[in-house]
Specification:
It is built from ten helices and no strands. It is mainly α. Helix 2 packs across helix 4, helix 5 packs antiparallel against helix 7 and helix 8 packs antiparallel against helix 9.
Length: 207
Amino acid sequence: MEGTSEVASRSVQSPGAGTEGDARGQSLFVVSLVVLFFLFGLFGISNHEMWRDEIRAWMIARESSSIFQLFEILRYEGTPPLWHLSLFAITRVTDNPQVMQVFHLLIATCSIAIVARFAPFTQRQKVLFAFGYFPLFEYGIISRSYALGTLLLFAVCAMCKAPARKYLPILLMLALLAGTTVYGAIIAFSIGVGFYWNSSKWMESVS
């Protein structure tokens, strides 16, 4: 009888223990993937000779004496201002362009953290994505505004997945996304139209 009751008690406790173990394993996976991505990226930027467009954005931000002058120069760049504004803030503290590279890598690492935590992929798929050409090299090592747009887009996707969807933070992220690149502006506009369309249909269904 004691053996039967002991087995029964274990069977009752096992689901909770399994859930706790799965959560701990998931957290360990997320942390491990994020740390490895950052270390690989750090090795990459330490051996990367910055390209002309990377240095150009840095020099524009560094040589601008004010935000007004920065916007005046950006009239001839044909790109939204969010990346240059970020660099403008950094250049008020240091004139070392390697700081831009580390800042950019941190942005890319945050994107991978969102994917590792919220994306509906298997762990293998997340690893393959993180160390693929675009996330690691194009959006991780080369310092451009695309990484900022990717981070904001992933953040929007994660917030849309939340059970209690909060539209004000989502709209704020979309506004920032529109300020990264022309592609970001197109994507932000498209998502905004989708939200408006869905909300209009919902209002019609309850009226």
